[in-house]
């Protein structure tokens, strides 16, 4: 009997281990299924954020330069322009990125001397910019032999507040209202396609790019002659809040 007891005791352990193996496999399968299920949700959240950014950029460009510019900016931000509506100086756009759609609204600021229906100025939205920025842009225009297209220049406090309220869905940095150089006409955002060319003349023109990695299209007036990534003249040492890429 003692032999039979030993045999039964010894053979019971492998059976226990055999029962545990399917349970562990089932738990692993459940975890993997949960992880796979999270991928579409994460992608949808990312699409919404990028759609909002693309829509903001398209609306700003469209308010200044029309539907073609809005479509180009939407594409540069990975989106597709689905709707473009203009009412006076106000533009509403709908942009799709992946499976997400976003609406944005923008209004052209500053006085315009063009007649209704006239083509927008080649240099983009420069109305109301500070003399120092206008001078720097003029130097860049001359060095390049063509106007630099400004997508976003002077912003009202209300426009900056709208961008600030949306900052959590924007992959780019946004300045707190009251601290942005855009509100003083001392900063511009240019078209992404313009950046490589402008960088070749930025140092000579006096244009500085303070956040080359996080905000590549954002330029301010530099402190003086030197590198394009130099310290901006217009930023107070007490205010270190980055501006937004629309």
Please tag this protein with its features:
Pantoate--beta-alanine Ligase, Chain: A,domain 2; 7 strands; 15% strand; alpha+beta; 43% helix; 6 helices
Q: What do you see in this structure?
A:
With 246 residues, the chain is of the alpha+beta class. It has two domains: 44-108, Pantoate--beta-alanine Ligase, Chain: A,domain 2 (2-Layer Sandwich), CATH 3.30.1300; 117-246, 2-Layer Sandwich (Muramoyl-pentapeptide Carboxypeptidase, domain 2), CATH 3.30.1380.10. 43% of the residues lie in helices and 15% in strands. It has six helices and seven strands; from the N terminus they run ααβββαβαβααββ. The protein has helices at residues 2-65, 67-76, 131-144, 157-165, 195-199, 202-205, and strands spanning 80-87, 90-97, 100-107, 150-152, 187-190, 207-208, 218-221. The strands form two sheets. A four-stranded antiparallel β-sheet has the order 4-5-7-6. It has a three-stranded antiparallel β-sheet with strand order 1-2-3. α1 (2-65) runs antiparallel to α2 (67-76). The chain is globular and about 75 Å long. Mean pLDDT is 74; it is low at 110-119 and 225-246.
Helix content: 40-55%
CATH fold-level label of the largest domain: Muramoyl-pentapeptide Carboxypeptidase, domain 2
Strand content: 15-25%
User: What is the overall pLDDT average?
Assistant: 74
Tally of individual domains: 2
Taking the sheet with the most strands, its summary is: 4 strands, antiparallel
Shape: globular
Overall number of strands: 7
Q: What is the C-alpha radius of gyration, as a whole number of Å?
A: 28 Å
What is the CATH class designation of the largest domain? Alpha Beta
